[in-house]
Amino acid sequence: MTVEANIKPANLGLAYATAGTLAVVVGPSGAGKDTLMNLAARYFAGRPDVHFVRRVITREGDAGNEDHKSVSDADFDAMQRAGAFAISWEAHGLKYGIPAAVRDELALGHLVIANGSRSVLDRFQTAFPRLKVINVTARREVLAERLMARGRESREDVLKRLERSSLTVQGSYDIADIDNSSTLEEAERAIISVLEALIGK
């Protein structure tokens, strides 16, 4: 099931705090987190107790490898004022929102999986006390190859970006690291294993 955003705020009761778990998937560009999330969503399709969040983003609907709800900046701001998001943030000139409706699914004890960002994990932890961080990584040389294959940056720019970035998550979080340097099948099995262990936990 996909959690959608709406203008009407979800139930803001505190039950969700001690019920289900929110798993936030993070990782550097080129690690393949979107691909792994899509594979996991296909694996768990039809499970009523597992939900993949459809984020609200201020970018075109056909941009990137993520099924998201595309809105304008004005619409995003209106939704935020109406309480439509459990958490929101800005990065790279875009605005991202996690629908407040996830609280209703968590209150039922379900597992909710969201695409997140390492830069705002503190906000996720505050909003969702039962939080699992899944950090998708790959060796730097693998990341460099994948990023250069996109053709968006020069080799020099890619290498500089990787030098500045960290492959680890900083902070006191419950973290599962998944190395996606080898075959996609291995990484897929790894993320599914982590998520299965969280169901009903």
UniProtKB/TrEMBL annotation:
GO terms for molecular function: ATP binding; ribose 1,5-bisphosphate phosphokinase activity. It catalyses: alpha-D-ribose 1,5-bisphosphate + ATP = 5-phospho-alpha-D-ribose 1-diphosphate + ADP. Pathway: Metabolic intermediate biosynthesis; 5-phospho-alpha-D-ribose 1-diphosphate biosynthesis; 5-phospho-alpha-D-ribose 1-diphosphate from D-ribose 5-phosphate (route II): step 3/3. Residues 20-196 form the Guanylate kinase-like domain. One of its GO terms (biological process) is organic phosphonate metabolic process. Its EC number is 2.7.4.23. PROSITE patterns: GUANYLATE_KINASE_2 (PS50052). Keywords: ATP-binding, Kinase, Nucleotide-binding, Transferase. GO terms for cellular component: cytosol. The keyword Ligase does not apply. ATP binds at residues 27-34. HAMAP family: PhnN (MF_00836). Belongs to the ribose 1,5-bisphosphokinase family. Catalyzes the phosphorylation of ribose 1,5-bisphosphate to 5-phospho-D-ribosyl alpha-1-diphosphate (PRPP). This is Ribose 1,5-bisphosphate phosphokinase PhnN. It comes from Rhizobium paranaense.
